[in-house]
Sequence to fold (251 residues):
Amino acid sequence: MHPGDLTQDDFLGGQLVLTQPRTGYRAGVDPVFLASAVPAQTGQAVLELGCGVGAASLCLGRRIPGLDLYGIERQADHADLARKNAEDNGISLTVHDGDLTQMPEILRARSFDHVIMNPPYFDRARGSMSPHGAREQAMGEETPLAVWLDQATRRLRPRGLLTMINAAERLPDILSALDDRLGSVVAQPLSPRTGRAAKLLLLQARKGGRAAFRLAAPIVLHEGAAHTSDREHYTPAIQAILRDGAALSWG
Fold:
Protein backbone atom coordinates (compact mmCIF):
# COMPACT_ATOMS: atom_id res chain seq x y z
CA MET A 1 0.00 0.00 0.00
CA HIS A 2 1.07 3.60 -0.63
CA PRO A 3 1.96 5.43 2.62
CA GLY A 4 -0.76 7.97 1.90
CA ASP A 5 -3.32 5.17 2.02
CA LEU A 6 -2.36 4.27 5.59
CA THR A 7 -2.92 5.73 9.04
CA GLN A 8 -1.23 5.13 12.39
CA ASP A 9 -3.67 4.71 15.25
CA ASP A 10 -3.22 4.44 19.01
CA PHE A 11 -4.68 1.46 20.86
CA LEU A 12 -4.69 0.76 24.59
CA GLY A 13 -4.08 4.39 25.40
CA GLY A 14 -1.00 4.50 23.17
CA GLN A 15 0.55 1.24 24.39
CA LEU A 16 0.17 0.04 20.80
CA VAL A 17 0.43 2.04 17.59
CA LEU A 18 -1.01 0.17 14.60
CA THR A 19 -0.68 0.97 10.92
CA GLN A 20 -3.86 0.21 8.98
CA PRO A 21 -5.64 1.18 5.75
CA ARG A 22 -7.20 4.64 5.69
CA THR A 23 -10.37 3.35 3.97
CA GLY A 24 -12.33 0.11 4.06
CA TYR A 25 -12.35 -2.04 7.17
CA ARG A 26 -10.47 -0.49 10.09
CA ALA A 27 -9.82 -2.10 13.45
CA GLY A 28 -11.69 -0.37 16.28
CA VAL A 29 -12.83 -1.43 19.73
CA ASP A 30 -14.05 -4.92 18.75
CA PRO A 31 -10.58 -6.58 18.56
CA VAL A 32 -9.67 -4.87 21.84
CA PHE A 33 -12.69 -6.44 23.52
CA LEU A 34 -11.81 -9.79 21.97
CA ALA A 35 -8.25 -9.65 23.31
CA SER A 36 -9.45 -8.58 26.75
CA ALA A 37 -11.70 -11.64 27.00
CA VAL A 38 -8.97 -14.26 26.47
CA PRO A 39 -7.71 -15.85 29.73
CA ALA A 40 -4.34 -16.84 28.28
CA GLN A 41 -1.24 -17.46 30.37
CA THR A 42 2.42 -16.81 29.62
CA GLY A 43 3.88 -19.63 27.54
CA GLN A 44 0.61 -20.67 25.91
CA ALA A 45 0.07 -20.81 22.13
CA VAL A 46 -2.64 -18.65 20.55
CA LEU A 47 -3.92 -18.70 16.95
CA GLU A 48 -6.05 -15.91 15.49
CA LEU A 49 -8.15 -16.78 12.46
CA GLY A 50 -8.49 -13.79 10.12
CA CYS A 51 -6.02 -11.64 12.02
CA GLY A 52 -6.27 -8.56 9.76
CA VAL A 53 -3.58 -6.03 10.72
CA GLY A 54 -2.99 -7.88 13.99
CA ALA A 55 -5.01 -5.72 16.38
CA ALA A 56 -6.49 -8.46 18.59
CA SER A 57 -3.35 -10.61 18.76
CA LEU A 58 -1.13 -7.61 19.53
CA CYS A 59 -3.50 -6.26 22.19
CA LEU A 60 -3.41 -9.71 23.80
CA GLY A 61 0.36 -9.88 23.50
CA ARG A 62 0.74 -6.48 25.13
CA ARG A 63 -1.40 -7.58 28.10
CA ILE A 64 0.18 -11.02 28.54
CA PRO A 65 3.91 -11.25 27.74
CA GLY A 66 5.51 -14.46 26.54
CA LEU A 67 2.66 -15.83 24.45
CA ASP A 68 3.35 -17.87 21.30
CA LEU A 69 1.19 -15.85 18.91
CA TYR A 70 0.16 -16.94 15.42
CA GLY A 71 -2.26 -15.52 12.87
CA ILE A 72 -3.64 -16.39 9.46
CA GLU A 73 -4.92 -13.72 7.07
CA ARG A 74 -6.07 -14.13 3.45
CA GLN A 75 -5.57 -10.48 2.40
CA ALA A 76 -1.85 -10.28 1.70
CA ASP A 77 -1.60 -6.52 2.27
CA HIS A 78 -3.24 -6.86 5.67
CA ALA A 79 -0.98 -9.78 6.58
CA ASP A 80 2.03 -7.62 5.69
CA LEU A 81 0.71 -4.84 7.93
CA ALA A 82 0.23 -7.32 10.78
CA ARG A 83 3.89 -8.32 10.50
CA LYS A 84 4.93 -4.67 10.40
CA ASN A 85 2.77 -3.84 13.42
CA ALA A 86 4.22 -6.74 15.38
CA GLU A 87 7.77 -5.61 14.62
CA ASP A 88 7.03 -1.94 15.28
CA ASN A 89 5.52 -2.75 18.67
CA GLY A 90 8.14 -5.30 19.71
CA ILE A 91 5.67 -8.22 20.02
CA SER A 92 6.39 -11.61 18.47
CA LEU A 93 3.56 -12.61 16.07
CA THR A 94 3.95 -15.16 13.26
CA VAL A 95 1.50 -14.36 10.45
CA HIS A 96 0.71 -16.85 7.68
CA ASP A 97 -0.87 -15.81 4.38
CA GLY A 98 -3.79 -18.04 3.51
CA ASP A 99 -7.48 -18.82 3.68
CA LEU A 100 -8.76 -20.67 6.71
CA THR A 101 -10.64 -23.03 4.37
CA GLN A 102 -7.24 -24.16 3.08
CA MET A 103 -5.25 -24.06 6.29
CA PRO A 104 -1.47 -24.04 5.69
CA GLU A 105 0.20 -27.34 6.55
CA ILE A 106 2.42 -25.66 9.14
CA LEU A 107 -0.72 -24.70 11.12
CA ARG A 108 -2.50 -28.00 10.53
CA ALA A 109 0.51 -29.76 12.04
CA ARG A 110 0.14 -28.15 15.46
CA SER A 111 -2.51 -27.32 18.04
CA PHE A 112 -3.14 -24.31 20.27
CA ASP A 113 -4.27 -23.52 23.81
CA HIS A 114 -6.45 -20.70 22.46
CA VAL A 115 -8.03 -19.87 19.14
CA ILE A 116 -9.49 -16.38 18.79
CA MET A 117 -11.50 -14.89 15.96
CA ASN A 118 -13.62 -11.96 14.85
CA PRO A 119 -15.57 -13.47 11.91
CA PRO A 120 -17.56 -11.32 9.47
CA TYR A 121 -20.67 -10.06 11.23
CA PHE A 122 -23.18 -9.89 8.39
CA ASP A 123 -24.92 -12.75 6.61
CA ARG A 124 -25.16 -11.43 3.05
CA ALA A 125 -28.28 -13.52 2.50
CA ARG A 126 -29.92 -10.96 4.80
CA GLY A 127 -28.26 -7.72 3.67
CA SER A 128 -26.36 -5.79 1.00
CA MET A 129 -22.64 -5.75 0.20
CA SER A 130 -20.23 -2.96 1.10
CA PRO A 131 -18.74 -1.09 -1.90
CA HIS A 132 -15.29 -1.32 -0.26
CA GLY A 133 -13.70 -4.66 -1.21
CA ALA A 134 -11.52 -4.98 1.90
CA ARG A 135 -14.36 -3.96 4.21
CA GLU A 136 -16.71 -6.45 2.52
CA GLN A 137 -14.19 -9.26 2.99
CA ALA A 138 -13.84 -8.36 6.66
CA MET A 139 -17.50 -7.70 7.50
CA GLY A 140 -19.58 -9.61 4.94
CA GLU A 141 -19.80 -13.36 5.45
CA GLU A 142 -18.37 -15.33 2.55
CA THR A 143 -17.03 -18.32 4.47
CA PRO A 144 -19.90 -19.70 6.61
CA LEU A 145 -19.65 -19.40 10.38
CA ALA A 146 -19.78 -23.19 10.58
CA VAL A 147 -16.47 -23.37 8.70
CA TRP A 148 -14.84 -20.80 10.98
CA LEU A 149 -15.97 -22.80 14.01
CA ASP A 150 -14.88 -26.12 12.54
CA GLN A 151 -11.41 -24.82 11.71
CA ALA A 152 -11.08 -23.26 15.17
CA THR A 153 -12.09 -26.52 16.83
CA ARG A 154 -9.62 -28.53 14.76
CA ARG A 155 -6.74 -26.28 15.84
CA LEU A 156 -7.53 -26.44 19.56
CA ARG A 157 -5.79 -28.79 21.96
CA PRO A 158 -8.00 -30.93 24.24
CA ARG A 159 -9.49 -28.53 26.82
CA GLY A 160 -8.36 -25.62 24.65
CA LEU A 161 -10.53 -22.50 24.56
CA LEU A 162 -12.21 -20.72 21.66
CA THR A 163 -12.94 -17.01 22.16
CA MET A 164 -14.80 -14.99 19.53
CA ILE A 165 -16.68 -11.73 19.06
CA ASN A 166 -19.59 -11.18 16.72
CA ALA A 167 -22.86 -9.34 16.31
CA ALA A 168 -25.38 -10.34 18.99
CA GLU A 169 -27.94 -11.18 16.31
CA ARG A 170 -25.70 -14.01 15.10
CA LEU A 171 -25.92 -15.98 18.38
CA PRO A 172 -28.51 -18.45 16.97
CA ASP A 173 -26.27 -19.06 13.95
CA ILE A 174 -23.23 -19.62 16.16
CA LEU A 175 -25.01 -22.04 18.49
CA SER A 176 -26.48 -24.01 15.61
CA ALA A 177 -23.00 -24.34 14.05
CA LEU A 178 -21.36 -25.69 17.21
CA ASP A 179 -21.04 -29.46 17.48
CA ASP A 180 -20.29 -31.80 20.39
CA ARG A 181 -16.54 -31.22 20.16
CA LEU A 182 -17.08 -27.88 21.91
CA GLY A 183 -18.96 -27.39 25.17
CA SER A 184 -19.09 -25.27 28.33
CA VAL A 185 -20.31 -22.43 26.12
CA VAL A 186 -20.61 -18.96 27.67
CA ALA A 187 -22.21 -16.07 25.75
CA GLN A 188 -21.45 -12.56 27.00
CA PRO A 189 -23.69 -9.78 25.62
CA LEU A 190 -22.22 -6.27 25.32
CA SER A 191 -24.93 -3.65 25.66
CA PRO A 192 -24.30 -0.04 24.59
CA ARG A 193 -26.28 1.35 27.55
CA THR A 194 -28.43 0.19 30.44
CA GLY A 195 -31.78 -0.99 29.13
CA ARG A 196 -30.56 -1.22 25.52
CA ALA A 197 -30.41 -4.43 23.51
CA ALA A 198 -26.94 -5.90 23.07
CA LYS A 199 -25.25 -5.15 19.75
CA LEU A 200 -22.11 -7.25 20.27
CA LEU A 201 -21.50 -10.63 21.79
CA LEU A 202 -18.42 -12.40 23.12
CA LEU A 203 -18.51 -16.19 23.21
CA GLN A 204 -16.24 -18.81 24.70
CA ALA A 205 -16.35 -22.58 24.29
CA ARG A 206 -13.99 -25.31 25.52
CA LYS A 207 -12.89 -28.31 23.48
CA GLY A 208 -14.24 -31.31 25.36
CA GLY A 209 -16.20 -29.09 27.76
CA ARG A 210 -19.33 -30.57 29.30
CA ALA A 211 -20.82 -27.73 31.38
CA ALA A 212 -24.27 -26.38 30.48
CA PHE A 213 -24.65 -23.35 28.24
CA ARG A 214 -24.57 -20.05 30.16
CA LEU A 215 -25.89 -16.68 29.05
CA ALA A 216 -24.01 -14.13 31.14
CA ALA A 217 -25.46 -10.88 32.41
CA PRO A 218 -24.89 -8.05 29.89
CA ILE A 219 -21.85 -5.82 30.25
CA VAL A 220 -22.84 -2.18 29.74
CA LEU A 221 -20.34 -0.16 27.72
CA HIS A 222 -21.46 3.47 28.24
CA GLU A 223 -22.70 5.45 31.22
CA GLY A 224 -26.02 7.26 31.08
CA ALA A 225 -29.22 6.67 29.18
CA ALA A 226 -28.17 8.55 26.03
CA HIS A 227 -25.18 10.10 24.27
CA THR A 228 -25.13 13.75 25.41
CA SER A 229 -21.74 15.13 24.31
CA ASP A 230 -18.67 14.42 22.20
CA ARG A 231 -16.86 12.55 24.96
CA GLU A 232 -17.09 8.76 25.02
CA HIS A 233 -18.94 8.12 28.33
CA TYR A 234 -17.44 4.63 28.71
CA THR A 235 -17.91 3.02 32.12
CA PRO A 236 -14.76 2.81 34.28
CA ALA A 237 -14.45 -0.94 33.62
CA ILE A 238 -14.63 -0.44 29.86
CA GLN A 239 -12.22 2.52 30.04
CA ALA A 240 -9.75 0.21 31.78
CA ILE A 241 -10.03 -2.32 28.93
CA LEU A 242 -9.76 0.18 26.09
CA ARG A 243 -7.17 2.55 27.56
CA ASP A 244 -5.15 0.42 29.99
CA GLY A 245 -5.38 -3.04 28.41
CA ALA A 246 -7.21 -4.58 31.37
CA ALA A 247 -8.80 -8.02 31.19
CA LEU A 248 -12.56 -8.25 30.75
CA SER A 249 -14.49 -9.63 33.71
CA TRP A 250 -17.24 -11.90 32.36
CA GLY A 251 -20.74 -11.33 33.76
User: Anything to note?
Assistant: DSSP finds eight helices and 13 strands in the chain. Residues 191 and 197 are 6 Å apart (CA to CA).
